[in-house]
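#struct-pred

JT: dropping the chains for the assembly here, can someone run the whole complex?
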Amino acid sequence: MNVRRGWAVFVVLLILLLGACALSLFAGPSWVPLSEIAESPIVRMRIARILLAIIAGAGLAVSGVIFQALLRNPLAEPYVLGVSSGAGLGAAAAIVLGLSGSGVWGVPALAFAGALCTIFLVYALARTSSGAVPVPTLLLSGVIVGAVLSSILMFIVSTSESEKLHNVMWWLLGSLQALDWRPLEISAPAVAAGLLIAILLSRDLNLMTLGEEPAAHLGLNVEQTKKLFFLVASLMTGATVAACGLIGFVGLIVPHIVRLIIGPDHRRLVPASALAGATFLILADSFARSVLSVEIPIGVVTAFLGGPFFLFILRRRTSPYWR
Amino acid sequence: MLSLKNVSAGYGKKLVVRDVTMRVPEGEFVGLIGPNGSGKTTLLRVISGVLAPSEGEVLLRDAPLRTIGKRRLAQMMACLPQELASDMAFTVREIVLMGRSPHLSRIGRETRKDSEAAEKAMALADVADIADRFMTEISGGERQRAFIAMCLAQEPQILLLDEPTSHLDVGHQLSLLDLVKRLNRRTGMTVVAVFHDLNLAAEYCDRLLLLHQGRAEALGSPQEVLTAEIIQRVYQAKVLTEPNLVSGKPHIVISAGADY
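RK: done, full complex below.
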């Protein structure tokens, strides 16, 4: 696990990301000749889409890394923990309340608030009196809270008469369709800020994987660190959900594979997961819009891949890289 | 070095430790013993600073523990809790380097000085030859020594241990405690350790604090504390004590109950 191999991995990840961008630029139902690329509106839309995929992929993957370190659980992930549903409910509430028209901040702000409330609720429900957060209770409370929030979300969708809610269903399934640059204006800074904090404080995440008390014995202010990272992960999840809806399992698949390649040190894991998450989502999106004549919602693609992957990790308890 | 003044502590309203007073001079090896649920681990958590006493005070070099910053405290005191585990595939060296955290700034990276401290700690704890192995693939005894090395990398003046040998076989038990004792004798590092096994406690500790229902039942040398009369009263177990033929420290001889 030496440093040089770490750098080689980053170079490869960067090349893969650029390759995925290039592929995604050309993939899709319509082929744009090279000579028209500069002024083609389709290409401009695809660039916005690629940027959105980079932001969302990096945000979701790093949120997964953070939740996994704080909760000491390889299955923790914004979608599984119900955090995405909380963000989705917040975003839908903002749309119904008419906040989406009043400015660009309404939807992301409520999505962030929804994500934050959800993780604290799930965490409080799963925590036993001794302070431990056992795997089964954490997953159960995440799934149940997520289900309840989803049903409230569906209730809002089904009872509302608003015209906009026709789009909500599509958005709920996850979509990187970017009609303009507006979703990027909020999400990109939010994810970038979260990523920066996670990279700067990545050593704290290493300590947190030892457990809360051992981390405290090493001089870490555990309560402060935990709150800060819950905030950061919720911010990234909320920003992503507000921009492109519910895209599940990215935070599960990507960190797990990256950990297999470069090990669990968060100083490398965080940036590498961001790069790999971006690449993964660009590829998944290219696949979603070019494999059939109609576009498949991206959330359907990631869940189709991620569900079995989740079960695979759950079954393989003797994985040498985690438990 | 360390001084406990009328310390009471517990969880919620339930007090687990009641009115314990003790002074630990620099360089001493003190054992905390007592039956299950007598408050040994809770008292150690109070000393380590993760649990605030509900009454009384812990002083470290005459400064109240609560006034010492977390990082500053971790530079002076290391703690190996019971059943510390790393589920992730960190290498031994990566784990030991985590022990340098209190000496780094929050966003700081390890320097050559930190690597040297880690290498030294690994050599002391006899894990230098497995430095690049994964924590998940080494034996229980090796893992415990790796965590000891992590504590030593903190360069602490006090080392707290909570039943450090509980899951180890007799060979690993002795080699681990020999290591701690050697550090204690050669570097003057103060040690406060929770023991389950009374014979191990008698062999390695200068003084023992016997806890019973959260109170200090006896405090003194192993000879003073580990008498058949006291053990029978506190543990409800019929035992004999005789001097260990090698060390002269008290040795507890058990016998099975009279009738089956």
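JT: nice. The interface with chain B takes residues 1, 72, 200-201, 203-204, 206-207, 209-211, 213-214, 216-221, 259, 263-265, 267, 320-323 of chain A (CB under 8 Å). The mean pLDDT of chain A is 84.
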